[in-house]
Design goal:
With 179 residues, this protein is an alpha/beta fold. The protein contains 5 helices and 5 strands.
Length: 179
């Protein structure tokens, strides 16, 4: 399964693509899209939209994972992130990629095993889980890859739960159940 992870923002958007084989995952793409603060809002949002669509077309992910909006005290920043997040959601819809949303707490728990993990701990865990030789250069890229890892973990657990909830089948050649 190929998963596109997105860390939404207006000034910087983290993008990461991983391939997950059911047991392990590897990075096939990681980058940050930056938009100059001197550009008008519409131009910045278009750049984000176009960049996500370009990555989606190049790697054809089966799914995308994005962090839900965390409301901070700064309303202006929250609104800008919300607009960029909306554009990211639209870009995945344009490319017909199923989108999954995870809270920062869910992502941190899936990656670091602790919902209050700090930036340094998340960076180290993403590097470890993806077997990266060098540390990632950007928190935004790490957050995008963490969202993708979180989705891979959730998919794996969902498959295991589905398998465990199936009724047991009798062994071939065994006696039929008695009534």
């Amino acid at each position: 399964m190929t998963i596109l992870g997105i860390d939404p923002g207006l000034a910087r958007v983290g993008l990461g693509v991983i391939v997950h084989d059911g047991q392990s995952q590897k990075v096939v793409f990681a980058d940050v899209v930056t938009t100059p603060t001197t550009w008008p809002l519409a131009r910045r949002l278009k750049k984000i939209h176009d960049a996500i669509r370009e990555v989606a077309r190049q790697f054809r992910p089966n799914a995308a994972a994005i962090e839900t909006l965390y409301f901070a005290a700064n309303v202006k920043t929250a609104m800008q992130v919300a607009q960029a997040r909306g554009v990211a959601i639209l870009a995945t819809a344009d490319e017909e990629i199923e989108l999954f949303e995870y809270t920062p707490l869910q992502i941190k728990q899936a990656v670091a095993g602790y919902g209050r993990a700090g930036k340094d701990q998340m960076l180290r865990m993403v590097q470890l889980l993806l077997n990266l030789k060098k540390p990632l250069r950007s928190d935004h890229t790490a957050d995008a890859l963490a969202a993708a890892i979180c989705h891979a973990q959730h998919q794996r657990i969902s498959r295991l739960v589905a398998l465990a909830s199936r009724p047991a089948r009798p062994k071939p050649g065994g006696f039929p159940p008695q009534r």
